[in-house]
Amino acid sequence: MKKVPETKIGTLSILTEGSAPKAILHCFCAEAALLSIDLLDEKGRSYLHQKAQLTPGPHKESLNISRLKPGRYNAWISLGQTSAIRQLHIPEPTGLSSRFKKFLKGKK
Length: 108
What we know:
Layout: E1 8-15, E2 22-29, E3 33-41, E4 46-54, E5 57-64, E6 71-79, E7 82-90, H1 96-106
Antiparallel strand pairs: 1-2, 2-5, 3-4, 3-6, 6-7
């Protein structure tokens, strides 16, 4: 008997390579479906809303998180009839440029 694929919402991870950080959602669609992502902070405030119509098969959807402050967020995700909540932690930036910005803020 042939196994019927099912729609799955996978991991949500941060990719910091390149110029702007982004979050990547891995998912699989058994059939064409609408993907809806709402990113909220710990207090329930909405920071990002994104929708996409996906075709059957595996997908990597990217979210631009470059304007979000460091902290913990919850992504409320629905893909067709499947829904899930995934946590996302945006760490404090590191490196020389972030240290310089903190130094300048302290001088005011």
